[in-house]
Structure of TRAP transporter large permease protein:
Amino acid sequence: MSMGALFLMGVFTVTVLIDMPIAFGLVLSCLAYLAVYDTAPMMLAAQQYVAGLDSFTLLAIPLFILAAQLMNGAGLTQRIVRLCAAIVGDIRGGLAVVAVLACMMFGALSGSGVADVIAIGSLLLPAMARSGYDKGFSCALVGSAGAASTIIPPSIVLIVYGTITDTSVGKLFLAGIIPGILLGISLIVVAIWQARKYNWAGGDPFSWAELRSALAGALPALMVPVLIVGGIRMGVFTATEAASSAIVYALLVGFFWYRSLTLRTVWESLKSTGEGSAAILLLIGASGLFAWILVAEQVPQALSQMLVHFTDSKTAVLLILTVVLLLLGTFMEAIPVIIIVAPVVMPVLAHYNIDPVHFGILLSINMAIGANTPPVGVDLMAACKIGGINMMQTLRPLTWMMLAMTAVMLLLTFVPELVLYLPRHVQ
């Protein structure tokens, strides 16, 4: 690896250690590299920053965020939680199972782990505390389930990965369905086991009448993933157009079906969307600039040559990349990791004939695990803030949940057909 690449990553590491915002650290390290090595005019930094944002597909990010905000404002979150509670009934640890199911369902609306944790956690964490659940367990569970739900379409993480690597977002959405379900099942198993161990309470007894009523109330929300994934797969619209359709759908449902959406709620949703989208796009632009310099320094080629000399096993390469991604995920958020890593590893994937859709799902699961791993752990941090506890209180129960998610990731690594079956067979 060249001295220029080492200098670039060294400066960036220093900015991370001094707790500088990731986006600023990426830009500062790039500018320092250009100033010291003078490989290109400074003006190119601005051009590459803008070029990183010049993608029609990226427009889907603010649109999906707005759609989720509108649906949350229309009361779909409460209806999803009610439906999950009606399905689960009074089994031991029922509230914990409801939390996982609700996160998975809301993840199919929001595409964002943090938004999922805030929406579901605000409703269920106080209820779980009143029912005697350990707060550390509850926050770890909601944080893990919220992060795992980002594998389920429409995932912002998958949209970013697809845009950066020129991989079909529609195929990535389909590929995320089975892994997302497996992650949810793994967390439910841990939740039931822990609930039985500590004798935590269930919910209200199962009732067919309540289930029918809850299903009728939540049905409009359940139609959203069908609209998005079905429309993309049938070629009716692109991912960006699907996001626009979801906004129109949310407005129609909120104003005319539930009649719970107000102009004030719409305005608040627009403001929240602007803030969230700006933060994400700021990171994407900065990460694109950083990746451009890494490619110019031939880091992808160096990595590819190193791995070729080390092993000729596709599975071994995936496991090595998994370890690297898990380490990166402990101190960086998902989007900058994806934009920095994806261009670097694409030549490696091509050399070993690794399907970029398969790797994209594995990368997303790595980032979901990282979103709950201290010291950063943005999803876990959001859950702890709602629960009013310190992150250290979650470490013991969190260990079991991270092991469960890691086990699913390893299963998907060794059995890629679990990821690739739907993209290959659903027309």
The CA atoms of residues 8 and 29 lie 6 Å apart.
